[in-house]
């Protein structure tokens, strides 16, 4: 299992050893990484509870008076109160104590239903989840940098980049425009609006000026791969269609499986380019040394160092992430003036 999943995620399941993904719904499969001793220790402390009572996080608020958080109910998976990047992290980093904790699921439909129905006012979803756009939820900014930097980043074989250095400019151009809202809307286009990943990617590329490209041919042959959930296929389509429009002959190998399958395929040259997540991949490659941080640039710098022995490199990181996030309805955000997590520590009205 991966470092960020074990110590940060609420027993989320992502591709990498967690089994097949069911990304058509809100649940996913664990991205996993090899465990070092530090990660194992953190995991044992982070997910030992089998559940949580609804009053696990109840509090009258911070000293000196009630906070906004102390008047609200937080929804998340049962293990959230013990997770350092879930409720425990919200308390330790932001000083937040909620009126009540409502155990639901790991960023899935039960959490969404609780937020929509008013059984909870704050809920844990994943930052690129289509439900955020579909329900007009407000993703609260992690302004004190609780979460590790799981920003989207293209990873490419160094030999391919050496032969065709222009690929870096093409892919970096895409990630430069891939904001959090843009990735979430792409996921909504596929997961909610039922467009194919290819059609959703084409529409986005056209809107953002990448298609039609300069055309041509003979730039070289590249293989773009993906792991086995639809966000990965969308990102793969963004890369593949843009490279094709710039004269490359592109083969697409999508939905190949989890990271234990796809990463060796990248190392061996069966695929050449893969959209990845900076913190997750770093802790996978370094076997859980705990080097990932909330800083995207520092994390991707460490990632490049870790990838070099495998003949790979990472390009620029996108603003977009796929990691733990906390959301409220637009009505709750307006009522309390919420845009970031630290706003929840303000005095209650």
- How many structural domains are formed by the residues? 2
What's the helical proportion of residues?
Answer: 25-40%
Radius of gyration: 20 Å
Q: How many distinct beta strands?
A: 10
The H-and-E topology, N to C, reads as: HHEHEHEHEEHHHHEHEHEHHEEH
Low-confidence stretches: 1-63
Strand adjacency order, main sheet: 2-1-3-10-4
The CATH class name of the largest domain reads Alpha Beta
Give me the CATH superfamily of the largest domain.
Dipeptide-binding Protein, Domain 3
Assign the CATH architecture of the largest domain: Roll
Structural class: alpha/beta
Number of helices: 14
Shape: globular
Classify the beta-strand content into a percent band. Answer: 5-15%
Main pleated-sheet profile: 5 strands, mixed
What would you say this structure looks like, in words?
The chain has 349 residues and is α/β, with parallel strands linked by helices. It folds into 2 domains: 49-146 and 323-345, 3-Layer(aba) Sandwich (D-Maltodextrin-Binding Protein, domain 2), CATH 3.40.190.120; 152-314, Dipeptide-binding Protein, domain 3 (Roll). The protein has helices at residues 3-7, 37-46, 87-94, 109-117, 130-134, 158-163, 166-176, 180-191, 197-207, 230-245, 259-268, 278-285, 296-307, 330-336; strands at 73-76, 100-103, 122-126, 138-139, 152-157, 221-225, 249-253, 273-277, 312-314, 324-328. The strands form 2 sheets. The chain has a 5-stranded mixed sheet with strand order 2-1-3-10-4. Strands 7-6-8-5-9 form a 5-stranded mixed sheet, sandwiched between helices. Strand 6, helix 10 (230-245) and strand 7 form a beta-alpha-beta unit. Helix 7 (166-176) crosses helix 10 (230-245) and helix 9 crosses helix 10 (230-245). It is globular. The chain starts with a helix and ends in a 13-residue tail after the last helix. The model is unreliable at 1-63 (pLDDT under 50).
């Amino acid at each position: 299992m991966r470092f960020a999943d074990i110590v940060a995620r609420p027993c989320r399941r992502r591709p990498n050893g967690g089994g097949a993904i069911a990304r058509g719904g809100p649940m996913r499969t664990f991205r996993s990484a090899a465990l070092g001793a530090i990660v194992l220790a953190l995991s044992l402390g982070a997910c030992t509870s089998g559940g949580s009572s609804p009053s696990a996080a109840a509090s009258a608020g911070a000293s000196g008076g009630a906070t906004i958080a102390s008047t609200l109910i937080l929804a998340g998976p049962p293990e959230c109160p013990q997770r350092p990047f879930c409720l425990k992290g919200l308390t330790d980093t932001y000083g937040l104590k909620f009126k009540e904790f409502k155990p639901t699921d790991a960023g899935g439909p039960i959490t969404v239903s609780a937020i929509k129905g008013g059984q909870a006012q704050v809920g844990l979803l994943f930052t690129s989840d289509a439900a955020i756009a579909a329900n007009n939820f407000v993703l609260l900014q992690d302004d004190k940098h609780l979460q590790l930097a799981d920003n989207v980043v293209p990873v490419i074989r160094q030999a391919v980049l050496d032969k065709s250095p222009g690929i870096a400019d093409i892919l970096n151009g895409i990630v430069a425009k891939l904001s959090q809202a843009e990735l979430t809307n792409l996921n909504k286009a596929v997961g909610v609006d039922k467009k194919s990943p290819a059609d959703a990617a084409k529409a986005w590329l056209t809107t953002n000026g990448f298609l039609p490209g300069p055309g041509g041919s003979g730039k070289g042959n590249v293989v773009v791969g993906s792991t086995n959930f639809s966000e990965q296929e969308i990102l793969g389509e963004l890369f593949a269609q843009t490279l094709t429009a710039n004269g490359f002959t592109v083969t697409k190998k999508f939905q190949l499986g989890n990271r234990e399958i796809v990463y060796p395929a990248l190392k061996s040259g069966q695929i050449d380019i893969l959209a990845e997540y900076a913190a997750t991949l770093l802790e996978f490659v370094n076997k859980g040394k705990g080097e990932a941080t909330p800083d995207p640039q520092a994390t991707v710098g460490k990632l490049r160092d870790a990838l070099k022995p495998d003949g790979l490199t990472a390009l620029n990181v996108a603003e977009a992430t796929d990691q733990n996030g906390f959301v409220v309805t637009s009505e709750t955000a307006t009522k309390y003036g919420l845009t970031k997590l630290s706003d929840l520590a303000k005095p209650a009205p």
